[in-house]
Amino acid sequence: MGDSLLQVRHLSKSFGSHEVLKDIDFTVDTGEVICIIGSSGSGKSTLLRCINFLEQPTKGEILYHGKNAETEWKRTLYHSKVGMVFQSFNLFSNHNVMENCVLGQMQVLKIKRAEAEKRAIQYLEKVGMAAYRKARPAQLSGGQKQRVAIARALCMEPEILLFDEPTSALDPEMVGEVLSVMQDLASGGMTMLIVTHEMSFARDVASRVLFMDGGVILEDSKPSDLFTAPKMPRTQEFLKRVLSRQL
Amino acid sequence: MDRFALLWADIVKLWTKYGASYLNGMGNTLVLALVGTVLGCLIGLICGVLNTIPYSRKDNVVKRFFLKLIRVVIRVYVEVFRGTPMVLQAVFFYYGLPYFTNNAVKFTSIWLVSIVVVSINTGAYMAESVRGGIISIDKGQTEGATAIGMTHWQSMVHVILPQAVRNIIPQIGNNFIINVKDTSVMFIIGFPEFFSAHRAAVGASYLYFPSATVEMVGYLTMTLISSFLLRWVERKMDGSSNYELVQEDQLTLTAGTYTHPDRGTPFDETSKEFEKGKGEN
Ligand SMILES: Nc1ncnc2c1ncn2[C@@H]1O[C@H](COP(=O)(O)OP(=O)(O)OP(=O)(O)O)[C@@H](O)[C@H]1O
Ligand SMILES: [Mg+2]
User: Around Cβ B212, how many Cβ atoms within 10 Å?
Assistant: First the structure.
């Protein structure tokens, strides 16, 4: 794999006296697809939200291209490079699909409208939503919304995409269309950090899987190892519980 | 029945003599209510936005102090102007200013002072509505904007405020209708609105009740038309409930479809596509 793109160093996060993340340490290399799994409340969302500063980390630092993301990167530039896809889509409900995709380009990257629309169409086509460019978010199904949200993130041409349970709010029959888009991205070389409960996806698409439990990363290994021979008892227990349901 | 005939005759008598003055009053009332509501909304918008600038413990002391100060000032403004009658506010502005400043500061235009009073009054109500409108917008909207690098102001202008304003349109309309009626107190400082036309007509004709009837019907007509127009604006703002698919790229509709893992997918070891996929990687 390539150079280390993102380094999380001794990251801790507390809400009041509740320590949700405890000294998290890991590195993401360019081109890696990392899935984060773990039971509810283990701090997966909080980790992603700290990485792009939707939550302020209590301790530790995040290095992006080796430079401190908090002090050495302009926050808006960092945000445009580190994209995020949310469980609840968070599309701008006052704008149609096209406007959702061009707004950030025009406001943040200062790209002219014509250019921005061209780029938007390109990414909307990639997720199979170009035909819906005039629709408003409220007029789309969950799967369609999430595909638009992915296109919106891609329009900023990020170097890494964070996904927080992108399929958890979807009806089962829509999960596949979103996973398939993500798989396309992965095989296209996009660096991704994905919190997911879709174990088959993690097993088949990820290059690395992190297992989180109680605010720490308990296990960090290749999916073939983690799913077939988990080292930690907690991981074994979690996988047994989840896989019996899913596979 | 003859009572009604009499009333009608009196109204006709009033209208032939004072019709122009009634109409002029209605015109002035509508202009004052409209300008006051628009300016009041602007004041409310500014207050609401200033009131919701986020700050955290990490911000420096000066910034935090100013933001807190702004919130206190707005709070005081809202409480004072919402908590006192507009008729007294008009008196304070029109007679109070020259009284306190020994005639150095005074309003020379009755229109200006009326507009100022109605705007400030409406602003006090709207400040709260706008603040409520802003904080009621799902946090995900702001997070979506932040996550693509938009600043607080950019997301305010392009994402949050349009939605907040849309949500408070009914309250703006409500305020406008209240202003149409409540500007009637401006006769106290001699503003020539609809109700002052009544006072003038009654003073000369003693036809008190018929003139009041004219006023009632006049106010109701103005407010009903306003209600109707406001509904229409609301519907316009919501846009079409339909959208058209952009035809030329129908083909792409089939791209990116994929079945759920539970039902056999490219990721299943048993599927041929899985083997193929593995080969590619
Ligand atoms: N804003 C907050 N304030 C206080 N506590 C919070 C906040 N956000 C998260 N927490 C707490 O942090 C812990 C971890 O939450 P987090 O959302 O990161 O878990 P998760 O691993 O994403 O779980 P899930 O799989 O259910 O999404 C939980 O105990 C939660 O209650
Ligand atoms: Mg979560």
Answer: 13
- Whether B260 has a pLDDT exceeding 50, the answer reads no
Please report, to the nearest 10 degrees, the dihedral formed by the alpha carbons of residues A156, A159, A162, A163 taken in order.
Answer: 70
- Contacts with B250 from chain A: Cβ below 8 Å: 131
Place of tokens 């502005």: B93
Does the distance separating the beta carbons of B154 and A108 come in below 8 Å? yes
Q: Please determine, for the modelled complex, whether the ipTM score is greater than 0.90.
A: yes
Among all residues of chain B, which has the CA nearest to that of A198?
A: B261
The residues that bridge with A67 in the sheet, in sequence order, are A64
Q: How far apart are CA A79 and CA A166, in angstroms?
A: 18
**Residue A45 beta carbon below 6 angstroms from any ligand 1 atom:** yes
Band of pLDDT at residue B247, cut at 50, 70 and 90: low
- Assess whether the C-beta atom of A144 lies below 6 angstroms from ligand 1: no
Q: Which atom of ligand 1 is nearest to the CA of A42?
A: 21
Residue B270 reports pLDDT greater than 50: no
Indicate the pTM of the whole model: 0.84
Residues A135, B267: C-beta atoms closer than 8 Å: no
Distance of CA A2 to the CA centre of its chain: 19
d(CA A202, CA A223) in angstroms, rounded, equals 7
C-alpha distance from residue A120 to each of A87, A139, A152, A179, A187 (Å): 22, 19, 8, 20, 21
Phi, psi of A21, deg, nearest 5: -120, 135
From CA A195, how far away is CA A98, in angstroms rounded?
A: 27
Indicate the burial class of A244 (C-beta count within 10 angstroms; 0-12, 13-18, 19 or more): exposed
Report residue A203: phi and psi, to 5°: -65, -40
Closest Cβ–Cβ partner in B141, B150, B258 for A180: B258
A215 C-beta closer than 6 A to ligand 1: no
